[in-house]
Automatic annotation (TrEMBL):
It holds the Pfam family DUF218. This is DUF218 domain-containing protein. InterPro entries: DUF218. Residues 46-191 form the DUF218 domain.
Length: 207
């Protein structure tokens, strides 16, 4: 009896897993796709790769090389103790310079940030101080929904035109995100942080 009972449960489990595997390519891509947004292309005064993934810096540099902006703005992010022997902003300056961004076009956004919300606030203040009328924001694909919502909220009524641009050929893609643990991690994280943003808990919305 007990053996038959467990065999039935095992059969149900195997069947359920089979259905999930079969349906995953259908039901999961839209979940990832919802996180990805992009504004129309723009020629701007400045381009800013949001702090974090190095690929954001690389892609922003490519856009600068295409004359999409005049200035390359860099934010400074809090790093864990002993994470590096230089401030984050200097690490980005070093990377951007190696990848061809002219030092004369680099602008350091004043202040150090810990969250995306803080970062966008600092970018707005810098843009106003510099007299920029348009800014391109570059970030990973999965980050564009939340970052875009924050940007458009903070820049609202500023008179500054904003364009959110996802990194081209980013590792996170709707068709494949669910095949890796990292894909699941960032997807769940972004949905959670977006929900926190909508409720007004900006200080908890994270990077």
């Amino acid at each position: 009896m007990l053996r038959a009972h467990w065999q039935r449960h095992l059969a149900v489990l195997v069947t359920t897993i089979g259905f999930v595997v079969l349906l995953a390519p259908i039901i999961l891509p839209p979940v990832g796709a919802w996180l990805i947004v992009a504004d129309p292309p723009l020629r701007a005064d400045a381009i800013v790769p949001l702090a974090g993934d190095r690929i954001r810096v690389t892609y922003a540099g490519r856009l600068l090389a295409q004359h999409r902006a005049r200035w390359f703005a860099i934010t400074d992010m809090q790093l864990a103790p002993r994470a590096a022997n230089k401030p984050y902003a200097q690490l980005v300056v070093d990377q951007a310079s190696r990848e061809g961004v002219p030092q004369a076009q680099i602008v350091i956004v004043p202040g150090t940030v810990a969250t995306t919300y803080q970062e966008i606030q600092h970018i707005l203040r810098c843009a106003q101080a510099q007299g920029w009328q348009s800014v391109i924001i570059v970030t990973n694909t999965y980050h564009t929904r939340r970052a875009g919502a924050i940007v458009h909220q903070i820049f609202r009524n500023s008179g500054i035109t904003i364009s959110i641009q996802p990194v081209a050929n980013d590792w996170y893609q709707p068709a494949t995100w669910w095949r890796s643990a990292e894909g699941w991690r960032v997807t769940l994280q972004e949905y959670g942080k977006y929900a926190l943003f909508l409720t007004g808990y900006h200080q908890f919305a994270g990077k």
